[in-house]
Amino acid sequence: MGAVISLLEMVLRPARQSMNDEFSPANGTFPPVDPTSAPLYSVPSSFPYSVMSHRPIPLWPRSPLEARALQRNLRSQVLLSDPHPRIRFLAAADVAYSKRGNWAWAGAHLFSYPELEILEEQYAGFQVTFPYIPGLLSFREGPALQEVLSRLQGDADLILFDGQGIAHPEGLGLASHLGVLLQKSTIGCAKSRLA
User: Fold this and answer.
1) CA angle, residues 155, 122, 161, in degrees to nearest 5
2) 174: domain range?
3) Residue 40: CB partners within 8 Å, gap ≥ 6?
């Protein structure tokens, strides 16, 4: 498990450094956002990595009630088998939040396996629009992770996420939710278990 956490930490090291150096409220680098005209995700203009697209991403409800209903519907689509007899490419994806609270950065790395050589990395900045609610992390972080993973040119056989998979109370945590949407094998590596 320590190696998995190290991979996930490596994914966001550049984004966290940028947050600490450039994106603090003290130096005012966050642009004002008008919530009535902002797209689903907005990007700070000075963000140094690739920027998030402004196209809406389907299947991401905005209310907790809609999110729970979708969670119940999607959990039956989780497959508990391994469709890949041999893993050659592994992706790891995670999200880091700014101190300001409404901005975050998603990062994804593609590795060769078993060598764990970094083949590619992508980052995306976004404005957080879904509240933090235990059990609904996939609706807060999922759209950005889906976007940043879609930017990887290589095709991962397996994706690691910092979040729950099937060990989620509803059986559909961040990893299993994105596994269903992306139709990929995923593993959730949460830091704690949800009750």
Assistant:
1) 70
2) 2-23+39-79+88-188
3) 54, 56, 57, 60, 129, 143
Q: How many domains is the chain partitioned into structurally?
A: 1
What's the CATH code of the domain at 163?
A: 3.30.2170.10
CA distance 174 to 114: 24
Of the candidates 191, 66, 71, 187, which has an alpha carbon nearest to the alpha carbon of residue 138? Answer: 71
Residues with Cβ within 8 Å of 164's Cβ and at least 6 positions away in sequence, in order, are 137, 173, 174, 175, 176, 188, 190, 193, 194
User: Whole-structure pTM over 0.90, yes or no?
Assistant: no
Q: Is 4 helix (H, G, I), strand (E, B) or coil?
A: helix
| Structural domain includes residue 29 | no
Ramachandran area for residue 114 (φ above 0: left; ψ -120 to 50: alpha; else beta):
alpha
Determine phi and psi for 75, rounding to 5 degrees. -60, -25
């993973």: which residue's tokens? 149
Q: What does the CA dihedral 150, 2, 82, 140 come to, rounded to 10 degrees?
A: -40
**58-116 pLDDT tens trace:** 568 889 999 999 888 888 888 887 766 789 999 999 999 888 768 888 999 999 999 99
Q: Which of 169, 140, 146, 144 is nearest to 159 (CA)?
A: 146
